[in-house]
């Protein structure tokens, strides 16, 4: 593995999941692998789970980990070419990324979409430029359109909690929110589920259709009840509209998942990538109840990051 | 030791002090104890000494230390239950703490009081929720009402600098300040001194009485001169009023400690937890003179944190 | 070596360069040297290269490295003596530095000049006070008037890229910028070049003369073309005026270096300390072309910092 930015970087998804589960049993088994290797974790946006879990993952492998919140500790980067830099941006991504490529062995980079210009966000310009100019292996810590470490952790969690049933039913359901959020998590979850051995259903209000390249193979319905029928896993997440880009089209609290609605599921386990706004996106009664997987799901972020770093270390050094 | 949030977590204070003094002689003696253990230091408020000394303490024990300024690198946490999170808080403390509990082995948490609502601050709601939801050992890095790592370092410093005299006289004196400061440091110092083998006197202007549960056993006087008579150690600190909660009742510079006033002490050694505002809280002549212990006192913060982490590692893993 | 704040701290510059080049071949050869030693990197101003390269340098030597952005994670320091601290500064540099001296074995400190008061900036008051009060070895991570780790990296880069020619011609040329920048980098580069085995020429518009103590021995010309004739290395940098202190006297884009202007050089290699504003300070065509050394120059920052830390560790512990 050279870079890890989407499910397309993984040749055999189920083999990766199995390797992760092995690693989880013995997280320090490869603590020599990262000796004298530096992992740089660069955040252009805030982070809690991704930052902590990636830092821990690198440390578990014996890497030196350097965390930098570029937006707060550094300065604004210019990403456009051909502009005279006489404004507020202090350094061009071409230099910043190239320099990081000299100091780090592996680079993790987080960059949220602006949600103003869909073409720009979906071009993954910033992530691609970091890959191009850093010239070292790059791990996405969430980009404009995807959050692959989250999706891998999600799939691990589903695998761990699946019962005898050969193909569990997994439902991605939209949830209300007061702020426009990126599509990265649902896009990414969808493209991983479409590659996994599950029955995958997406449900959301009209207008919230995700980009089709992420959802190919999924069943899509505007009827949440229909989607929830016999669901084994329910993945709850808000996102803003893709077509009417970045817009909030509804905040209908009828989409809020409650214990009442869980009854039509197959004792469905509830997931969320966190942070979650209680009783807006997801009810407290579910988060505090026996069906919630959100904490073990977050815990798996460490092992998802660790297996990716392990593979990158093995393949590139 | 499971948690360290107050003197009540210590069964034998003088044994802890002796262990700290031993550790100080050989700080790297237990550098294998923390192997493959992660210490998370989470700051909801700024810190210099606590952050640096706790980070170093963990490293001395061989722990991986992850520092995160949640207020700056992360986002605002919701601490109340039963609210629909449609405002400015992004994540509930229930999830944030639980996730940290998955990534860390030991959690250090700093959370200042708001000084608006006494009941809320004195309930130690935030600290208690971190303990409840993280489900791992928790060390207070200063909470609403106490700063126990500071108090332990203070006691170590007093022990080191005590002469043959069996029970030194220790005076906690209020000092002026322009901003309303928490009572955490004086509360905590008082409750530790009340358990130590010292004659303990507190002096402050009328209205600055601390909560009685912290000062039980102390002599309290409004006459600073009387308090300073023959004092061996003078602990200088501003705090805002407890009864007229969070208020500044006076900024009377007559309470400022000077060399002149030191004459009535027993060549008293002067302490302060720092940061100190020079010539407002404490005179430069004392800070720069031979009676000041503020720097060795700050140095002892490392060993205070280290002995606490050592005991937690020994008892819980 | 006790401190590293200018070229004057180096007894034999070419020996230091040779040692750095050796270290670069085997950066982990001394990974035991820093065991149980803590490097504190304190930033009063933002940093990218200096922060990352110094952190990596310390880690390469086996040191524990603690990075703190004092301006963001901590609070404002008072640097003046004799003031009653009843304003916005929370802690005096006397205490802050002394405490850091207790926690760290080596202190790196960055402090930019205010560019308002030349005497104050050029007194290097803050750096000198850190040295005085911390009482441990101090490395400048850029101060009011110098950036010696940058200059050492620059000299290493020139040495590496020098061809058979015994004394390469090195030109420091002023470049336009929209903000007033410190003189630290050009001052420092000049004083290192004046000690190196090179023909050193400085060129800038009228009014941009640097302080003479940094440029003694250099040829100074206001004619950029004349300076560039047969140049082997061209060091591009903006600075604000020293005499009309902190002022921008011109933004004349005629000073912008382009491929066209490189023709009169001896296939001159182009350097810049970064961050660089593209097409304002330096043309994109040069930065993206074969003559640019800016990335290998930045890479050498690691080895410059590492050799300095190595010498300090060897001499002081």
From TrEMBL, chains A, B, C:
Residues covered by the Aspartate/ornithine carbamoyltransferase carbamoyl-P binding domain: 2-160
The keyword Amino-acid biosynthesis is annotated on this UniProt entry: yes
GO BP terms in the entry: citrulline biosynthetic process; L-arginine biosynthetic process via ornithine
GO MF term (any one): amino acid binding
Binding, carbamoyl phosphate: 47-50, 75, 110, 147-150, 273-274, 301
Key words, A-Z: Amino-acid biosynthesis, Arginine biosynthesis, Transferase
Highest rank taxon of the organism: Bacteria
SUPFAM superfamilies tied to this protein: Aspartate/ornithine carbamoyltransferase (SSF53671)
Catalyzed reaction equations: N(2)-succinyl-L-ornithine + carbamoyl phosphate = N(2)-succinyl-L-citrulline + phosphate + H(+)
Residue stretches making up the Aspartate/ornithine carbamoyltransferase Asp/Orn-binding domain: 185-310
Known pathway: Amino-acid biosynthesis; L-arginine biosynthesis
Binding site for N(2)-succinyl-L-ornithine: 142, 177, 237, 277
EC number in record: 2.1.3.11
Family: Belongs to the aspartate/ornithine carbamoyltransferase superfamily. SOTCase family.
Quaternary data: Homotrimer.
The protein's role, per its UniProt record: Catalyzes the transfer of the carbamoyl group from carbamoyl phosphate to the delta-amino group of N(2)-succinyl-L-ornithine to produce N(2)-succinyl-L-citrulline. Is essential for arginine biosynthesis.
Protein name, as recorded: N-succinylornithine carbamoyltransferase
Record organism: Adhaeribacter arboris
Taxonomic lineage: Bacteria, Pseudomonadati, Bacteroidota, Cytophagia, Cytophagales
Gene it is expressed from: argF'
């Amino acid at each position: 593995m050279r870079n890890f930015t989407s499910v397309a970087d993984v040749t055999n998804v189920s083999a990766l999941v199995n390797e992760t589960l092995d690693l989880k049993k013995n997280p320090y088994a490869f603590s020599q692998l990262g000796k004298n290797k530096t992992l740089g974790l660069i955040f252009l946006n805030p982070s809690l789970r991704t930052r902590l879990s990636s830092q821990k993952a690198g440390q578990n492998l014996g890497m030196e980990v350097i965390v930098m919140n570029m937006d707060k500790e550094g300065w604004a980067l210019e990403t456009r070419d051909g502009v005279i830099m006489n404004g507020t941006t202090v350094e061009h991504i071409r230099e910043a990324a190239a320099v990081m490529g000299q100091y780090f062995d592996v680079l993790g980079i987080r960059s949220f979409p602006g949600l103003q210009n869909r073409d720009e966000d979906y071009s993954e310009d910033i992530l691609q430029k970091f890959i191009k100019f850093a010239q070292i292996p790059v791990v996405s810590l969430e980009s404009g359109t995807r959050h692959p470490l989250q999706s891998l952790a999600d799939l691990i969690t589903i695998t761990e909690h699946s019962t005898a049933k050969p193909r569990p039913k997994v439902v991605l359901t939209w949830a209300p929110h007061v702020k426009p959020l990126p599509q990265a998590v649902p896009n990414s979850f969808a493209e991983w589920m479409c590659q996994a051995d599950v029955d995958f259903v997406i449900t959301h209000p009209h207008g919230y259709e995700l980009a089709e390249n992420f959802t190919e193979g999924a069943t899509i319905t505007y009827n949440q009840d229909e989607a929830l029928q016999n669901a084994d896993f329910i993945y709850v997440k808000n996102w803003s509209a893709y077509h009417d880009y970045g817009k909030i089209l509804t905040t209908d609290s009828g989409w809020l998942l409650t214990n009442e609605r869980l009854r039509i599921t197959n004792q469905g386990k509830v997931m969320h990538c966190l942070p979650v706004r209680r009783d807006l996106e997801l009810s407290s009664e579910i988060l505090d109840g026996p069906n919630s997987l959100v904490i073990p799901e977050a815990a798996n972020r460490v092992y998802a990051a660790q297996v990716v770093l392990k593979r990158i270390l093995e393949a590139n050094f």
